[in-house]
Amino acid sequence: MAQPPDPNSPPQPWLWMDVTTSCRARSGQMNGTLRVEHSIATALSEAIAPELRFCRYDPLRRDYVPVAYAPDLGAKPVAAAPKKQRATLLSSIKPLGKKLERTIRTSVRGAAAPLFQKVSGREGLPPLAHAGASEVLLLAGENWSRVDYAAVARMRRERGTKVAAVCQDFIPVVAPQFFADGEFVTQFEAYAQFLIRECDLVVSISESTSADVRAYAQRHGGVRGALEVVHLGADLVTPKAAVRPQALTDAQAKRFVISVSTIQSRKNFDLLYHLWRRLTEQGTPDLPTLVIVGQPGFGSSDLLWQIAHDPVTASSILHLPRVGDEELAWLYQHCAFTLYPSFYEGWGLPVSESLAFGKYCLASNTSSLPEAGAGLAGHLDPLDFAAWRDAVLDLIRSPAHLADHEAAIRANYRPVTWDQSARRMAEVLRGLSVAPALVGN
């Protein structure tokens, strides 16, 4: 008869978190997915350290291998080469580089694969568990492009590994019109099938995203595993020294509002541009400068060209394509309020950030944004120009109303901390580790 586990024995590792996305990051520029993977890894390390190990996908072995720790990625902007110079370099070396990369990868993979098959583990760490063990593999990065679905399915069937995936959003399936690359949408469709066919647990970051996954599964024969919602942490680490962006003039710094996001068609920055243009034309008293914080993305070129060349908004709209954490903190701390008119989101981090800094946010009433607003943000139809105009004018003309909103935020906003998020994540994942493994299913 098997002996019950000793309650006094140290916890044994059972959770493997894939940090392939972080391992492959080649710069200090932190995008949303990298930030989430890094934050989850850090929070889980602090919450259940003895039970957690990290791994990455090794394309040579076509398997997951242990790593000693999750990469510690910074969030500093990366200086880019001058545009003309960068284009010249890329145009000259890109075709050759791709061809060389393919040749080397094919040769090395064929020669080295037998050697790697004999290696058990890396950096003195134990290999991933074998069949019958209660191991859980957590995928929390760029799962739509970084995961070898066949390798994961093989682990689940041959070793009994339980597979959990964090789904940040389902937008390429729900609203593919917001993506320029049809190949990416097709790739994401394969990821969606992986979620409902091969995962024992899908962890959504919002009720809205969970509903999107559930609706998709109903149209495609159901979902194999469980669906759980785990809200990500929203407690921000404010830099010790907030710094005012140099591009912001003294006059603009006195009164401004911000909208923070990558600039793409889905984010609906067109509405803000046309709204500020109208308010500027009308000579609206005390109109704050609209500061748009974000890098250009799909569908933004025409809009940014108009903003850069429109004499009407030359002094009332400012675009800051790159800011560091210290500058972003300063903008949140000193803005009058924030704006986020996005058409569709998996969560809406800028709304949470705004509330965490005690600032009122006018956001859309779609997808997950009301969840992010926690009843303390204003929510409007992203297509209702008149409603946005009236709401902005009310905040400009009635400082008392804005002060009331900020007082309500200070009194009532209680963000989910990363510690709470990690413990909830560990709770739902631990349920997989104690469930019987169905090897070969």
Q: Could you give the topology of this structure?
A:
Blueprint: E1 15-18, H1 20-24, H2 32-48, E2 52-58, E3 63-67, H3 83-117, E4 136-139, H4 143-146, H5 149-159, E5 162-167, H6 171-174, H7 182-198, E6 201-204, H8 207-219, E7 226-229, H9 250-254, E8 256-260, H10 269-281, E9 289-293, H11 301-309, E10 317-320, H12 325-334, E11 338-340, H13 349-356, E12 361-364, H14 369-373, E13 378-380, H15 385-397, H16 399-412, H17 418-434
Parallel strand pairs: 1-2, 1-4, 4-5, 5-6, 6-7, 8-9, 9-10, 11-12, 12-13
Antiparallel strand pairs: 2-3
Helix pairs in contact: 2-17, 15-16
List keywords for this structure.
single chain; 441 residues; alpha/beta; Rossmann fold; three-stranded parallel beta sheet; 45% helix; Glyco_trans_1; Glycosyltransferase family 4 protein
